Amino acid sequence: MDLGIKGKSALVCGASKGLGRGCAEALAAEGVNVTLVARTPAILEATAAEIRQSAPTATITTVACDITTAEGRAAALAACPHPDILVTNAGGPPPGDFRNWQREHWIAALDANMLTPIELIKATVDGMMARGFGRIINITSSAVKAPIDILGLSNGARSGLTGFVAGVARKTVAANVTINNLLPGAFETDRLKTTLNAMAKAGGRDAAELIEQHRAANPARRFGNPAEFGAFCAFLCSSHAGYMTGQNILLDGGAYPGTY
Ligand code: NAD
Questions:
Q1: What gap in Å lies between CA 169 and CA 84, rounded to an integer?
Q2: Ligand 1 mean position, distance from CA 193 (Å)
Q3: pTM of the entire predicted model
Q4: CB-defined site of ligand 1, < 6 Å
Q5: Each residue of 7-20: pLDDT tens digit?
């Protein structure tokens, strides 16, 4: 299927590794010109070089910055001022016990996982509407539907973003601008390893054993891989996906046990 987005421009945050990289690769493979944002220049440049090789028709630009800061967002938007596609993403908040979190921990989580996506949407959505095409994807978490106790900062901040998106997504779709959230379950990335290692430590368990237990417990008997997450994201960004907006789409191998 031709996704109909060749030549469009995309700003993809948290794009040097994991799920953001998966999205950037899939969009570039469709001929989208992608601006990759991540913090560590060396990893970012290595990723960009690999994507340029695998998708030679796409123009790949890099911005090394912290997207959760005003300066970082300004740098990203200066490099890609009029994106047709925006993928918001940043590292998730650290796991822990809510009894140990102070106001500054909550503010950091809200900044990274709620207010940064909202600021990026604010900066780009009107231009998309004026041009009659836009696709905004927020990478959130399965924790929005099925909260994970040690990820309380994530559960809270991402739920705030989800509520915000639910309102605004209905105001943009008539202009062919959709806003949807992708909710990853367990995907094989650095972040997953960090979370499972913390769970093992908190419970006094062997980390390798816990990881295998989680893998086996998933109905798919495996973790997801970033490439399949990226392919899904690319379809949601396609010209064919203009009638879907304000949705929370769970990609978790069936781990969420509910009917709805
Ligand atoms: P990852 O650690 O593998 O990759 C994160 C990427 O984001 C890296 O490129 C990193 O450089 C970049 N990044 C992080 N903070 C940034 C910042 N402040 N500014 C710019 N770039 C930044 O993580 P991942 O597994 O791909 O996770 C992506 C998001 O999805 C995270 O918010 C995570 O909490 C969430 N999530 C992941 C899983 C999973 O199983 N992997 C499950 C649920 C939710």
A1: 16
A2: 12
A3: 0.97
A4: 13-20, 37-40, 66-68, 89-92, 139, 141-142, 184, 186-187, 189-192
A5: 999 999 999 999 99
